[in-house]
Amino acid sequence: ELTLHEVGSWLEHRRALDPSSGRASLSIRITKAEVRGPKSAPYVDYIMHVRTAFTVRGIARRYSSFRALHAQLRAEFPERAPELPERRLFGGLSQPFVAERRLRLQAFLEACVSDRS
Known about the structure:
The chain has helices at about 5-15, 65-75, 95-115; strands at about 25-35, 45-50, 55-60. Strand 1 and strand 2 (about 45-50) form a beta hairpin. A 3-stranded antiparallel beta sheet has the order 1-2-3. About 40% of the residues lie in helices and about 25% in strands. By secondary structure, it is an alpha+beta fold. The protein is built from 3 helices and 3 strands.
């Protein structure tokens, strides 16, 4: 018999996977924002820790990835898609702007994962 998981491990995580338990089975935390790239074309990467019932992964995404996610959500759920921070053409790399956008992107992600319907 092929076993893909140990029974004890599954039972330990089952509550986190059960929507009726009231606990989120997915959490995403933007831990920092970093300006990267060459001086001629800098951009901001938002570094996130994504926690599921079984793993924690670190990933980096640019604002354009959040915009793509927002577009998909609006296409599928037009009346329930959470608010995304606005795009800024000039001054988008200033430290105060990046810090504020990071907070607003965190609120966007929390709204995405907290909607159980």
